[in-house]
Amino acid sequence: MIVGVASTTVKASPQEIFDFVLDLNRYRKADRKIGRVGSVVKSERGGTVTFSGRIRGLPGPSGTYPFTRTESRLEFTSAIAGAARWFLDFNGTFDCEVTTAGTVVTHREAFNFKRPWRWVVEPFLRHWLETDTDQEMVRFKELVDAEGHGSIST
Which domains are seen in the chain, by residue range? Predict the structure, then answer.
C-alpha cells in the first residue's frame, strides 16, 4: 500500500470545501491524478463520481467511486464499476477541522494495487504519491482561497 497525506488551512467552510472537491472539473486543477471526468451523482450524504485516473502524467483506468460525507469528512472508496476496480483498492479522505485561523483540511490518499501490479507499481509510485499529495494541497489552498469564500464561523 502507498499513502500520501498532507494538510493545509483555508478560508472556507467544510461544506464549501466538499462542494469544491466534488466539482471534479474544478478540483482536477489541484489534483492532477484526475483525468477525464464523467458523471457525478450526489445525494444528501453520498453519491458516486466517475473519472479516469492519471498516474505520473500517464492515462489510467476509469472507475466509478462511491463517496460519503459528514459534517467534517468526505471519503471516497474503491471503484465499484470500471476498469480501475481490477487494478487497485483506493481510499481517499478530506477531514476538516474548523479553527479560528480557518478550516484545517487533511487529505489522505491510499492506493493498494492488486497482484501482479503491486510489486512493480508500488515501489515506483511510493515517493511520487507522497510528493504529489503535498503539491496537490498547495494548489488546493491557492484555488480555494482565490475563490474568496466568506469568513469561517467557529
Answer: 2-146 (3.30.530.20)
